[in-house]
Design brief:
Strand content of chain A: 25-35%
Strand order of the largest sheet of chain A: 18-17-16-19-20-21
Largest sheet of chain B: none
Number of strands of chain A: 21
Radius of gyration of chain A: 33 Å
Number of strands of chain B: 0
Shape of chain A: elongated
Largest interface: A-B, 62 and 68 residues
Helix content of chain A: 25-40%
Number of helices of chain B: 6
Oligomer: heterodimer
Helix content of chain B: over 70%
Number of helices of chain A: 10
Shape of chain B: globular
Structural class of chain A: alpha+beta
Order of helices and strands of chain B: HHHHHH
Chain lengths: ~425, ~190
């Protein structure tokens, strides 16, 4: 732990030296007075040097090194500083935070007076407006004297990884069912006999039928034991494909089409998994992240982790997505593309897949709505032209059998999705 | 501009104004004003470099304009040291204010109490250090001005003696720097 001389110290030494040189040059004692004054201040400053036996223990109070929070949630950061040495008057504590993390209570940068053998507990609350992985720390401690001539830096390299997960929208009313069901149990009525709770048909009693399945009214009417058959409830495979191509990104770092798509993907994954469907994920960004379809809470966690670590980019072509879907993912799946449809290649891939054995749906966050939110001035003619183009593209996708949800990302997804799904059901 | 900022700007400009008025006898009387104004601009722009350079050039220009002054008289010595330490006190205080404003900007409401306490205690510390420094400088300069080695030297010999003394002072500065940068045992 070396003592660092600050710029103020350098100025004073420089001033003293200049005083001596100029004093010699001009033969004037007034410059020598300036030199003596600077030296006097330096000598006085030695008084407030930090004690030699600086002994600090800095500890970040956290159960795990990785913590998960949802977007917009507050998270309390706690740091314990244990001073085993002498009293320090001006101790600067700075817990380094990424630029996107906001402090909502307290401060990550404080000046404290720490007494001898005193323990200081630093607490502050942060929030993060976007999803992603963030590193909190390291904690930097710096002693600086009041004249800011000398400083001594130390600290702890302990870091905390904060995973900010997308907040999923509560979509209880949404009945999102894949067209093709698989043989495992779920909540989708299969229009065939199987394991379920809804009555489907009557049949003659067979030895081994459970007593609770016997239809006593029908037995009395026919004078022959009859058993209830139920409609099989199954589930399907759904693959969420999130478009993270940088060339099609609209908006700012905090509010953009990719952030909206991630939020929508999280909400839909939650709805589908709670209906016992198998859900998979492909995210096309800087890397092609994918999660093979699965069920349960663990799968939800995997999907969230992949959505969180996602970074926008475009190194991977759309051929990669198509290849993954065709070679690795199950056939006759429902594919939900979440894309602002700003990259023409993406729409072409959707049309290609619609013509194959897939049930394709597109949820498209409207980029114009985001652009309107972030831009102060907006040109109406350009908007009208873009609207016409976008509507043409959406109509084209509908004509190829794709279900299209044109979503205003400034509003909740549920009402729009519900409306489109109702229309889809009516259309058959 | 807030009242606090206006007040600090005015205080920072006060020593150059006094220095300027004390330099009216010279054709270069305006230099302390100009550099003092630069320091105020540096403060308002939150630019440490402009602030530092402005203060030091204002000081240097005052010394240059008054290089003919005889500081052997206690009143003259007092004026010179007064101007010097006025500049230095306000410079250190303003630097501290700028540093604190950086912390205040990121602090939520509740945490500002700590910063305000630091501001008060730092000001007390600056004032006490500067007063002690001024006392030491006055004593050192007074003794230096009114003592002689008893050597009858003139012309070239006088300059040589000043050179020797200057070199010794350089060594003293170097010694202080070495002493302060020495590692503490066990570190």
């Amino acid at each position: 732990m070396g003592m660092k001389k600050e710029r103020t110290f350098v100025y004073l030494v420089g001033f003293a030296a200049a005083g001596i040189v100029l004093g010699n040059l001009f033969g004037s004692p007034i410059f020598f007075i300036a030199a003596v004054s600077s030296l006097a201040l330096l000598v006085i400053a030695v008084r407030s040097l930090p004690p030699e036996n600086l002994d600090f223990e800095v500890e970040r109070v956290s159960e795990d090194q990785v913590r998960e929070v949802y977007v917009g949630d507050e998270f309390e950061v706690k740091i314990n500083i244990n001073n085993e040495g002498g009293k320090l008057r001006f101790l600067e504590i700075h817990d380094i935070l990424p630029s996107l993390v906001e402090v909502v209570e307290g401060s990550n940068h404080q000046m404290l007076d720490v007494g001898e053998k005193e323990e200081v507990k630093l607490k502050y609350k942060i929030t993060c407006p976007i999803t992603g992985k963030f590193e909190i720390g390291p904690v930097k401690l710096r002693y600086r004297d009041a004249l800011n001539l000398f400083s001594k830096e130390f600290g702890s390299e302990q870091k905390l990884e904060l995973r900010v997960l997308p907040r999923s929208e509560d979509m209880e009313k949404v009945d999102l069912n894949p067209k093709y069901t698989k043989h495992w149990l779920g909540e989708i009525k299969s229009k065939s006999m199987g394991v379920g709770s809804e009555f489907f048909a009557l049949r003659d009693y067979l030895p081994g039928d459970e007593l609770r399945d016997i239809n006593w009214k029908a037995t009395a009417r026919y004078l022959d034991p009859k058993t209830n058959e139920y409609e099989g409830e199954k589930s399907g495979d759904v693959i969420l494909v999130v478009d993270g191509y940088e060339e099609g990104l609209i908006g700012t770092r905090e509010n953009n089409t990719v952030r909206a798509s991630i939020g929508a993907a999280a909400s839909i994954a939650s709805v589908l998994l709670s209906a016992r469907n198998r859900v998979g994920l492909i995210v096309s960004g800087e890397y092609l992240n994918w999660v093979y379809p699965g069920t349960g809470k663990n799968q939800y966690h995997k999907i969230m982790a992949n959505l969180t670590k996602f970074e926008k980019g475009g190194a991977w072509g759309l051929e990669g997505i198509r290849w993954l879907l065709e070679e690795f993912f199950p056939r006759r799946s429902m594919i939900i593309f979440i894309s602002p449809l700003t990259v023409p290649k993406f729409s072409e891939t959707i049309i290609d897949l619609s013509m194959k054995e897939y049930d394709v749906m597109v949820i498209s966050p409207d980029p114009i709505k985001i652009e309107k939110e972030v831009l102060e001035e907006y040109e109406d003619t350009a908007e009208k032209l873009y609207r016409v183009e976008r509507q043409q593209l959406l109509d084209k996708l509908w004509s190829y059998g794709t279900t299209v949800v044109d979503w205003d990302p400034t509003e909740p997804l549920e009402p729009t999705l519900e409306e489109v799904l109702r229309y889809r059901r009516r259309k058959g | 501009m807030s009242i606090e900022r206006a007040l600090i700007s005015a205080s920072l400009f006060l020593p150059p104004v006094i220095a300027g008025f004390l330099s009216l006898h010279s054709v270069y009387w305006f230099l302390p004003f100009v550099f003092g104004f630069a320091a105020v601009v540096g403060y308002n722009m939150k630019n440490f470099f402009i602030l530092d350079v402005g203060v030091f050039l204002s000081l240097a220009s005052y010394l240059f304009v008054n290089r003919g002054m005889n500081p052997s008289a206690p009143l003259n010595l007092l004026v010179v040291i007064g101007i010097l330490f006025m500049h230095i006190t306000l410079w250190l205080y303003v630097k501290n204010v700028l540093f604190i404003s950086g912390i205040e900007k990121i602090s939520a409401e509740g945490a500002r109490k700590n910063v305000a306490a630091f501001k008060r205690s730092a000001l007390n510390e600056i004032v006490s250090c500067v007063l002690l420094g001024a006392l030491l400088a006055f004593a050192g300069s007074f003794i230096g001005m009114n003592s002689y080695l008893g050597l009858e030297v003139g012309g070239r010999g006088k300059i040589l003696l000043m050179m020797v003394l200057s070199t010794s002072v350089f060594f003293v500065i170097y010694g202080i720097v070495k002493l302060l940068s020495a590692e503490s045992p066990g570190e």
